[in-house]
Write a structure and sequence with these properties.
Structural class: mainly alpha
Strand content: under 5%
Shape: elongated
Number of domains: 2
Oligomer: single chain
Number of helices: 11
Mean pLDDT: 87
Radius of gyration: 20 Å
Distance between the termini: 36 Å
Length: 232
């Protein structure tokens, strides 16, 4: 699962300083100063944290992301997406270090921001919901993860239906396929063969969006086994 959507960062990095000034020329001086302070204090530690994450240097990444989080919190609601992204990155670090209670709290905080600002069917909200579900799965708490995965599937199905380009559609289809795979596994392990069969029937519609043949084969064989145990 992608950790965060990079579009906002790409936009900031491709804008020339003069363009940034032009964008804020109609704002009040205080707002302009606050925006400039955010740019100065947020992006340096944020980018450093992302670089450290790629090296799996989680101690350094956590230190950098903590600084960028403080900068985003100081800037207020106007940069809530940046704040939510940074909190999620801190959650990923906690998850990778198997500090699951901490990761759960961080992903809950990121989700709360998305629920406050996003529409109920926004794919970004779906990604935040799925992130929290992944923590519950890591904690072996399927009863908490399952409703979140079902919610994620509903959000991404709407986004899939509305997507106009093949790349975006494939990304949403991949989310649906993975969530369906996990939901099938949960139904199977809890001895609900008919539920697992229903989820297979639905999830197999998106199997082509798995990136590898191995993943497609695993789900196909799993659903064949599920079908053999379901009621006629």
């Amino acid at each position: 699962m992608p950790r965060r959507t990079p579009l906002r960062l790409v936009i900031l990095l491709t804008l020339a300083p003069s363009a940034l000034i032009a964008q804020s020329s109609t704002t009040k001086p205080a707002a302009t100063s606050q925006a400039a302070d955010f740019q100065r204090t947020y992006w340096k530690p944020e980018l450093a944290g992302q670089a450290a994450m790629k090296k799996e240097d989680y101690a350094t990444a956590k230190k950098d992301f903590t600084l960028s989080r403080a900068a985003a919190e100081k800037a207020g609601d106007s940069v809530w997406q940046d704040l939510a992204g940074t909190i999620s990155e801190l959650g990923v670090i906690a998850r990778e270090q198997q500090h699951y209670p901490e990761a759960e709290q961080l992903f809950q905080q990121a989700l709360a921001l998305h629920e406050k600002h996003d529409s109920a069917d926004d794919p970004a909200l779906g990604n935040a919901v799925q992130g929290l579900a992944n923590i519950y799965m890591a904690e072996d708490e399927p009863a908490k993860a399952e409703p979140l995965l079902l919610r994620t599937v509903d959000i991404y199905k709407k986004a899939f239906a509305a997507a106009s380009d093949a790349t975006t559609k494939a990304d949403y289809g991949n989310h649906i396929a993975w969530c369906s795979f996990w939901l099938i596994a949960m139904a199977t392990s809890s001895n609900r063969p008919d539920v697992a069969k229903s989820r297979c029937d639905d999830g197999m519609k998106y199997i082509q969006y798995f990136p590898t043949a191995t993943q497609r084969d695993i789900m196909t064989r799993g659903c064949t086994e599920v079908a053999s145990h379901a009621k006629p």
